[in-house]
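Thread: Newbie trying to understand structure tokens

Hi all, I'm a second-year student working on a class project, and my supervisor (Dr. K.) asked me to get a predicted structure for one chain before our next meeting. I've only ever worked with sequences, so writing a 3D structure as a token string is new to me. If someone could post the tokens and maybe explain what I'm looking at, I'd be very grateful. Here's the chain:
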Amino acid sequence: MIDWLTFRAPLVHEVGQRGPFWNGSIVSTIPDPESGEAIEWETLKRLPVEGSYSNRITVQSTTMGDGRPAIWVSGCPAKWFQGHNVHGSDDLSGLVLEMLARICEGLRVTPSASDLEAWAVGGIDLTRVDCTYSWCFGTLPRAQAAIRSLAATAHLRHRGPGVFKGDTLYFGKNSTRWSLKVYAKGHELKARPLPLDLVESSLPGHAAGLVRIEACLRSKVLKDRGLSTVAEWSDTTASDLHHSLMECLQVSEATMLDVHDLDQLPRHLLPVYQLWRDGHDLRAIYTRPTFYRHRAALLKVGIDIAVKQARADDSNVVPLRTVLVGQPAAVPDWLVGTPWYFEPRAKVA
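---
Reply by user tm_fold:
Sure, no problem. This is what the structure looks like when written as tokens:
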């Protein structure tokens, strides 16, 4: 599903304090010898636009690259249209057109013929797209256990292991290109409850065991992949893109070797494995070439030394490891056709 969109679309409108997107401005002033103070810079504030369930969409007056007047739009279309983002649409083009149509209707702006023509052919610039998919683990505790297991065994290519912020696991969190975000949907719904008309539905129970993996793509990677305009997206682009980014997430097939499996290792790798098993950061011990040489050799037996292990304690407790297998979460049949599942049908005439 498309979980977040930030885009810029051509739209003829009056710019300034009397314009439809005016919501005030933030001004920075500096001392001025003659007038006492002068404006250093001024930035327009974003205008929240109310949707069916929330005001999670904000808009702002801007211009296209060629100087034409335009509208800047950012927000979560699923929550705006249907009140939740447990499930949603992959139809990026349809969502953009529906958002523009509803924004113009709500703010009483009439797009010109050239605006409508540009929208119809996908002449809309994308600067952020979040593609999100869920896996079902049955219950919230199992979903949380799966995330902890992923944190212990996963490594994002060229970026390293994940980091937790609260209960959310991030890979490439501060990247200006793209990142992955993993969390339990059931836990999020406890912090951000559903609209009242959804609380008594089957949706909370369905969402409780879901693990969500969000891929956030920013302008640099959208341009590099040739996906910086709506015209370049098809019906399968979101799912294909999410799958390709997930392939960059390397998950070790094993965390510890059984004693009899140690015979598989060359003698010179035994101390390397022992240090890693005891929880040492091998990047701090070996040079970069040596570290990656050892890593390549150990990956052949399912050990990824790029994923740091927790330090072993002195207790006699044997940890119980449960293999958790999640299934891709499909949209429930009972949800389709209700106001709680929005399917774009916008047409530009």
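A couple of things are worth pointing out once you decode it. The radius of gyration is 25 Å. The first strand starts at residue 2 and ends at 10. Feel free to ask follow-ups in this thread.
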